Amino acid sequence: MGAIREVSESLLSGALNPEECPPMVPRFEREEVAPGVHFVSAFANVVAFETADGLVMVDVGSFLFSERTREVLRSDVKAPLHSAIYTHGHVDHCFGVEHYEAEPAAKPVQIVAHSAVKRRFDRYKLTRGYNTHINQRQFQVGHEFPGEFREPSVTFEESLEFSVGGRTFQLRHALGETDDHAWVWEPQSKVLCTGDLFIWASPNCGNPQKAQRYPREWAAALREMAELEPEVLCPGHGVPIWGKQAVNAALINTADYLDSLVNDVLALLNQGVRLDTILAEVSAPAQLAKLPYLRPVYDEPEFIVRNIVRLYAGWWDGNPAQLKPAREEVLARELSRLVGGGSVLVQRALRLRDEGDLKLACHLIEIAAAAEPNSASVFEARSAIYAARAKGELSLMARGVFSSAAQEKSARR
After folding, report:
1. Smallest Cα–Cα separation from 261: which of 302, 211, 293?
2. What is the pLDDT of residues 334-351, one digit of tens each?
3. CATH number of 3-258
4. Fold (topology level) of 326-407
């Protein structure tokens, strides 16, 4: 048994704690998951299928790690790259084709993706600065977001089937984490490549800093995958899953998880309930949330609930004061004046932190910071409160936002 498969089976059996093996941490290891099918564990995984006419790869690499990913694959797999399939246009999946084209005797690579990938790349060019800030908060890295992208040469809308060197690849479009997502089925090996529709974590369906996600359609796509009875599941992040029964369970449980959240939110929306109440009353099913591949280590159910409300009900939270609210600093100055000044808010916020009520502490310290945006003492307390908040969070997204807040020394624009 290979090292990657051993990790997978240890996670599924409970012998390995998922928090000790987070899916976003690259292993930079290669393992043959089926005859002629090679899996490379990277920040975003790569799957390479050997064919008589060269390799067909599902995803290529991250803009930060694509060359290192290629080196891991090339440690043992030497065939030239014929085609690259982008499961979607996120920048951790679609960079590095040029490294393969620079190899001796290489030919131009055919790049296959859903038609919406190009629209994504156009949007990324418009929002490059914003996406740089997102990555700095979410991952605590200082790299600038890419501004140039290698676009697909072959696109499709709902489905596409093509053959290379004796293997057939079936692609299906799915609204899910993105609107440009595709999953890949190779029937000869019975290997399923899900992209980010499965990532060994609570589905990335509520990211608070990203565009709309589609949980209901996502669940339907997972059920469609399960009907094919795959024997190996290669995820966008994390390790593969082997065995028809284990793969089916992972797909169906993830679909049930998403459907449960959607159904519960819609039931409350249809009663006219506000977002605040929905957030308090809807949670992921406990028996599913404890599974090793549905832990909230990246995204989390609370964020998914917010995304579902945004999808079906718009951005307004139902509070009439929030429809056309006062500026934050205007409200903060008024509240600060009413309680006797920013120092009172700071003292109470720090006391709440010590008592373990970090949610309320954050609200109060934000009021103090908005009322006194240049106060060193306020921002010193704010840093301490958010550092404590970040330490107690399980999801990478929440931890990243709170860690960034802890580093700020003055009010943001």
Report:
1. 302
2. 999 999 999 999 999 999
3. 3.60.15.30
4. 1.25.40
